[in-house]
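Note to self: keep these together.
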Amino acid sequence: MDSIAALVLAAGKGTRMKSDTVKVLHPLAGKPLLSFPLEAARAAGAERIVVVVGHQADGVRRCFSGRDGIDFALQEKQHGTGHAVACAAPLLGGFQGTVLILCGDVPLVRVETLQRMLAVHRESGAAVTVLTAVVDNPRGYGRIVKDGTGRVTGIVEDKDATEEQRAVREINSGIYCVDGPFLFQAVAGLSRDNAQGEYYLTDIVRAAAGQGRFTAACPVEEAVDVMGINDRVHLAQAEAVLRGRINAAHMRDGVTIRDPGTAYIDAGTVIGRDTCIHPNVHISGGTEIGERCVIEPSAVIRGCRIGDGVIVKAGSVLEDSIIHDGVSIGPMAHLRPGTELMEKVKIGNFVETKKITMGRGSKASHLTYLGDATIGSDVNIGCGTITCNYDGVSKHRTVIEDDVFVGSDVQFIAPVTVGRNSLVAAGSTVTRDVPPDSLAIARSQQVNKEGWRLKKK
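Structure:
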């Protein structure tokens, strides 16, 4: 099998996005738009990938430079797709295998489609294979021109097409397989003699015909696979398609999604079997969720690792947290970054956590803030408890050891440690360490002034 290199064209600005961000960096299902053709190319067998960058080139490089096997070619001035390929010649000019050319703004192409196109290319012995689609409205797309035998003889851009050619409904997707040595030889001979004054990559088909070489067409099964993103309307349409594919894949793997139309699950999310996702749930940031979990309506989960048998109740927000097996969270709880909850912890309604660890079986059932704290196992945190972790300059840590019972409306003025098996009385403001096996009471003695109300009147 021939070696495969991928060339991804991503130099355009994307003016119709009307954005300060270059088009290929706009987010789609939790990833930059350009991620999808790059991942598809790699999965289809590309050993080397060259990305042609132009507008905001440094930003695109920073976003993707950490990925193995990716090089960047700079197209400083955009003179067409043929010129973009020519800019990559110093990196791929000596490549003897098959070059897979993709567009950075066509994110929905499937790996299976690329593999099928590569197979057609090999089996037909073509110099060029074009991925095509039949669409109802081909306006704006290049048309596939064939001879009487059905062989591809050229691709005509919409602005250069005759009325007869504009009636053709088979269009060029902008995705190709090309014999490597032929590609760069053909691109070097391109002309700008056309309506847009650009070097058209599509002209390599005519060059192949001129050399008596064969060009194959490989039609996609669904035209949406080669949908290009030109504006934010297209971006939203692509996101709807992609989310549908993501949700369908999870359901086929044993996840229940009660209403797939309102489950917003980003690409790269891992969900275990027999987990149930309720309506209007948002899951992003590379989250991993275990088996037999329940994610109730309107929960938002970003960048979390969640174990098995976890319940996330309605309206809760979880960010960059680690949740072990059997934990119950919410409703309306907020787990901020750095939270780690061990097995069978209970976090109730209107509880907020930040940079804490909470040991097995501990619970904070309602109306509590726990920040910068280490909490042991089997600890009860009463309603209205606060760890006062910030003194206006620095953050300080609260340590509550195993088997501590904290009454309602307690304030811990950090740094402070509460020893194991202690009890902190309701309404206390704890400013000093509490030894193990102790009762801590830190409140003023109650004074009753009888008749005070009558005197005021």
